[in-house]
Amino acid sequence: MNTDVTVAAPVLDEQAEHELARAVADLFAETERRFSRFRPDSELSRLNRATEAIDVSPELLELLLRARRHVADTQGIFDPTVGAALVAAGYDRSFERGALDRDTPGIALRSQFADLEIDEQHGRVVRPLHVQVDLGGFLKGLTVDRAARLAPSPAVIDAGGDAVLSGDGPDDAGWLVDIEDPIDDQRVLTTLRIRNGAVATSAPNRRQWRAGTGVAHHLIDPRTGAPSTSDLAQVTVLAPTAERADVLAKTAFVLGRDAGSRALERQPDIAAVLVLDDGSLHTIGDLDHA
Amino acid sequence: MTTERTCEPPRTSAFELRLYVVAMLAAVYVVAWRVIATPTPTPTNAAPVDGAPVPVVSTPGPAPAAQPVHRTVWIDDLPAALRPQVVLPPGWHVVSRTSTASTPAPQPRVQLVRVPASRPLRVRTRSS
User: Residue B105 is nearest to which of A17, A39, A191, comparing CB atoms?
Assistant: First the structure.
């Protein structure tokens, strides 16, 4: 979760806001320390190195079970076992622009979450050697949700674009959310008003690197084990939780315009803004444009 | 009766002139060497802790790929090295003998935003 986190809680006094910020920082740091695949000493990395059954902590077990639900809900389009494919594509360390560039493209690898054997009763996991788990697809959204529960409404917890906006905003007119143009990050495509909701955006523009003569990015299509070749430039999802918005945004992006739109339209409590490759917008659900 | 006397400039000897030219060339060379000729790290220029250079590191995985690591320090106990949250300059890697080559991930920074009534807070959503 290489990101900055913004905290705003206008009903708190300055000291209480500082204490809230400290608690949020501790939460993100702890989550990073325990579940980042880029930290060799994290619990997740220990799982990803295991060559036989290992016992996992209740917290990691819970994350794996959440992941399994997301896989089921998206028919496998969202799959946290893309870790090996991410490494093969070049995303083998925390992202920094230019640091992942390579002269030869990686070999596409395919794995699926069902390959992971999870013994819920005993908290034990058997990981086949070809499977690498990466919880980054939903863990940031989940952490934002947990951080938001620390703050009294109205409040904003924004972790690099995954945000929870509780309450009606400081002036009861809703919180303003700008959707960034994936082509020109200085430009805003549209501004929404959000009340008691969460938002997340998926696009390849900020985490892409040179791989051979082409460009690779972090949004892996589990069906191919390679970076998605979607006809979408960006997907923004509004949902009750940031975790769900995170998962659905990635899923819709990988599915592409038609299948992604259908998948989102099937969700009763979701709204979305899809940016097509040609720059046009396609909206789903009820959106309050500012 | 007055006599005008003209002051002639001191003559520079050939030796002094040569000395001056050599000194100028030396100064130019030193400046060029320091500014332009920055040494390019090579695998053999790794900065070993225990004396062992690290020309190549293998990354684990089903299809391990060897990649040259130009600036590398051997650390025997990786968790102990990471515990004090060592922050390495860009381009440096911490390499464990038995684990993945990796650079410690930067810690998330929390920014507190005081919401003034006169200006609404705008959240920008983007891929990150």
Answer: A39
Contact call for B107 and A88, based on CB within 8 A: no
**CB neighbour list of residue A252: distance below 8 Å, 6 or more residues apart:** A202, A232, A235, A237, A260, A261, A263, A264, A272, A274
Q: Residue B82 — φ and ψ, nearest 5°?
A: -80, -25
Q: Give the burial string for A38-49 (b: 16+ CB within 10 Å, else e).
A: bbbbbbbbebbb
B105 vs A contacts (CB less than 8 Å): 2, 32, 36, 38-39, 94
For A200-220, give one letter per residue: b (16+ CB within 10 A) or e: bbbbbbbbbbebeeeebbbbb
Contact by Cβ (8 Å): A157, A5 = yes
Of B61, B103, B128, the CB nearest to A87: B61
At residue A25, what are phi and psi to the nearest 5 degrees? -60, -45
Q: Which of A93, A130, A140, A180 to mutate to test the interface with B (most CBs of B within 10 A)?
A: A93
Distance, in Å, from the CA atom of B83 to the CA atom of A253, rounded to the nearest integer, reads: 37
Note whether B114 contacts A132, CB cutoff 8 Å. no
pLDDT digits (tens, 9 = 90+) for A206-253: 666 666 666 667 788 888 878 888 899 999 999 999 999 999 999 999
- Given a contact cutoff of 8 angstroms between Cβ atoms, the answer to whether A274 and A263 are in contact is no
The residue written with tokens 């650390």 in the block is B75
pTM for the model stands at 0.71
Report the complex ipTM.
0.79
pLDDT surpassing 80 at residue A201: yes
Q: Is B117 near chain A, with CB under 8 Å? A: yes
